[in-house]
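Many introductory courses stop at the sequence. We go one step further.
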Amino acid sequence: MTEWGEAAFVVALLVACLVALVLVLLARREAEATRRQALEDAATVKAEARAMLADAQRREEHVAQREQDLAAERRQVRELVEQAEARVQQSTLHAQQAEADRRAAREELAAAREEAAALLQATSGLSPAEARAEQVRLVVEEAEREAAATVRRAEARARRQADERARHIVAAAVQRMAGPTSTQSVVTVVPLPAEEMKGRIIGKEGRNIRTFEALTGVNVLIDDSSDQVTLSSFDAERREVAAVALEALIADGRIHPQRIELAYAEALAGARDRAVAAGHEAAERAGVVGLHPEVVETLGRLRLRVSYGQNVLAHLVESAQLAALMAAEIGADVATARRAAFLHDLGKAMTPERPGTHAALGAEMLRRLGEPDVVVNAVAAHHDEVPLESVEAVLVQAADAISASRPGARREELDQFVERMTSLESLVASHPGVRRALAMAAGREVRVVVEPDVVGDAALPDLANAIARHIETELTYPGEITVTVVRELRASATAG
């Protein structure tokens, strides 16, 4: 072998030794790591074992403590049972003693009764049965007297409480309804757009104002110091028609006798539309819906009716609101009370043309148009003409009385004035040939329009005197009444 071969062999051998040494070192290192890991695992297991041992010891201590507690509770239960048994025994003894006492008392009472009966029979001559009956009678009479006294006290207390509650409800309703009264005057004011309109209304030599007054039956008062015209009449319907006609004439600007007659005819023709509009407006203010069209129109006609100076339609609206407030206070049906109170004077629109009371006429109309029975009864019974059948009917009566009795709501002198004017017109209209009679100037003047084909010009003075003498005989009035008889004959033809 050459030197190079030997050298290579030696190198290889050295490399092999080095590799073997490295492998040995790696094996030792791995063994050391494994030994350390084994030691750590052993330490962990020992710690867990110690913890488990400590937990087991704590559990044993807790179980021991629990056993001690249970033993104490068992001792307490035994003591309670023993105490309960002792109490039961004591109660039994007491009950036995009480029963013995009761038997002794009953025996003593029976002996006393026998002795009292013997004494009563000896002194009063009554047998025990008769004495017992007399005693029962006295006890019953005493019980009846006490019961009657208790009932009277309860009734008095209930009456006081009811009166106090009723006053509270009425006061609350009136307070919440504080507002203007619904009185109505006998004048209507129409504003003028310009000063020159006064001259047009008066007309040449006063012909326009005379024509207007003759047609409408109202007094026209024009003051130089104000820009308005006052229409005066006791009849609200005449004032309304006159106001509508005058407003139409002012808006048109053309004012002459023919135009006045046309405006008056149009105002008369629009009465139904005005009634329907007034009925709808009142129903809306009262909060009542679902009314029959005929009812709405009839209600609208009440805008021109007054009762002791109080506008009837405004009174109905106020009554509906009062009844609703009181119904809410006591828990009654608010809608029914509101509706019945709003309709309770409906019949006043029909009394001039049909016989019967306004309550009966209104109830008949509402029944015919399908209103609920409770509403019909409330309307029919609000003046006690039929029995009241519901609490809402009672509320309608109360609301009617409150609205009518509020300070300033009614004035009797206005109704007396209207009645006097109506009587005056009726008396004058009863004369033959009279077509229309108009009481004007607060009754100080009567204008009489006659049929021209029945009363001639020569008969006018005699008719005026006859009417004046009739008024003097039949009526009582202050001052003087001027009778003016008007005869007008018109002829018209059309050229074709």
